[in-house]
Amino acid sequence: MGKKGFAAVRSSFFDEASRAFEFLVSDFGLNGPELRTVLLPSVRFTGGGVRYAIRLDTGEKNVITDVEIDFNEKRLIAELPDLVQAAGIGARNHVTSKATSLNALQNTLELHARYLRQLQPLMQPDKILGLMRAAEAREWS
User: Fold this and answer.
1) What is the pLDDT of residues 116-134, one digit of tens each?
2) pTM of the model as a whole
3) CA–CA distance from 102 to each of 1, 33, 89, 133 (Å)?
């Protein structure tokens, strides 16, 4: 892949991710998108005690979608593929992450958005901790 191809991915990431995940704002009332460039380019949405971080790994040329919650002075972070499997809505390996071209980026973002649309109703205070633990979320103090 030439520089031009991935340069298009990098320059389009914020707009494409903001568009793909806009439903988190319009349908579920979350705040965002918040654009960040520290470490990896990322788009974040927050609300209802949950944070979604969609990041572009420029080294691996893939998209990583994480879900974060705070619980008892700890931060729990789970990756989307693990949550999809823990929630029983799909197999972990069905959550692809390729972003090697603009088309691959768009397809990956749409796939991640479809899974998050299914997961969002499960992100309720009485369900989220069990789901995060079933997904083997990393815990940070």
Assistant:
1) 999 998 888 888 999 999 9
2) 0.92
3) 12, 20, 27, 34
